[in-house]
Amino acid sequence: MEEGAAPPREQGWRGPILATLALLILPASPPLAMLVPVDQTLLLLAPTLAACALVGWRAGGRLPLALVWTAFAAWVLRAPATAGTYEILARGWGVLLAATFGGLLLLGDRGRRFLPQALLAILIALSLALVVSLVASGGLTEAGAVLGDEVARRAEFGKAAWQTFTARPEWQEFVTESPGAELLAEQVEQQFAVLPQLARLLVPALLALESLAALALGWAVYHRFGRARLGPPLAPLAELRFHDAFVWGIIAGLLVLVVPMSDALRVLGINLMVFFGALYVLRGLGVLLWFLQPGRWMLVVWTIVLVLFLQVVGAVALALGIGDTWLDWRRRTRPKSQRSE
After folding, report:
1. Residue pLDDT, tens place only, 37-81
2. What is the pLDDT of residue 332?
3. Cα dihedral value 50, 52, 54, 59, nearest 10
4. 243 φ, ψ to 5°?
5. Residue 69 neighbours by CB under 8 Å, 6+ apart
6. Reduced to 3 states, what is the DSSP secondary structure of residue 59?
7. What radius of gyration, in Å, describes the C-alpha atoms of the chain?
8. Long-range pairs of 144-149 with CB within 8 A, sequence gap ≥ 24
């Protein structure tokens, strides 16, 4: 690239489009809607895009792009007159997360990779939210009650929608022809009683994971519009790695669960295991995709396996991800001439 020339935009929209559809559709799909803290993904994505565009403008990017994304974020974040406490909290978290991430990008080195900055931004934002909750009247008790009421509302809505669906003549006819469908319907309905309790317990981990996904998507979308780079491109899943010290998050979670401690610390341990466990599942999936790369047709087989044996594959991916901390599977598969690179 010639000196003074603008760096090229990242190419390819398939990944961001699929990720956007997933983040928009899945949170609104029962029973998954009960597990997603912020069911309107745009409340996280739009402020992130605005923050990236503003930092890009300060780095030499275009002002009109920053103004467009900022106006879009303001439109998304506008609260209707009927907005309740939960809606206000969700919008506040979106602004806090984006401001923290943008501040780190503005003050940090543009050569730093996305994941460390995103994780640090989430940690800072969660810490600030905790401090505000402790200082505000009602504190964590009121915030927990608001989240609990929202989860219960989603559970009731999802259960009613499911019961309406299963009462339709088409479903009844399907059940008559397929006896196993009735058992499936009962199992799904049972989830509306189990998942709300799980969602209340895992709010910090689930919020952190959802925020990480929104930040990654915002980063990817911005770099397909903006010419001022904020850092290196996101690595493909097959090349996903992070610092090996992250394994201590899982170890700390296990320690808190094994050693007799207070209920608050046990909840913290469970959330640590869920969050870092999810990261290592992604890393393990990257290892699996690395092995499958030589034969592209194997990706179809992998998709079928993922759908049919999700729990088994998830356990294998978690084991591979944690094992990659010490064994570095992908480096072992490289030719000797490439290992020194």
Report:
1. 888 888 999 999 999 999 999 888 889 999 999 999 999 998 776
2. 59
3. -170
4. -60, 135
5. 46, 49, 50, 52, 53, 54, 222
6. coil
7. 22
8. 144/200, 146/85, 146/86, 146/89, 147/37, 147/86, 147/89, 147/200, 147/203, 148/200, 149/86
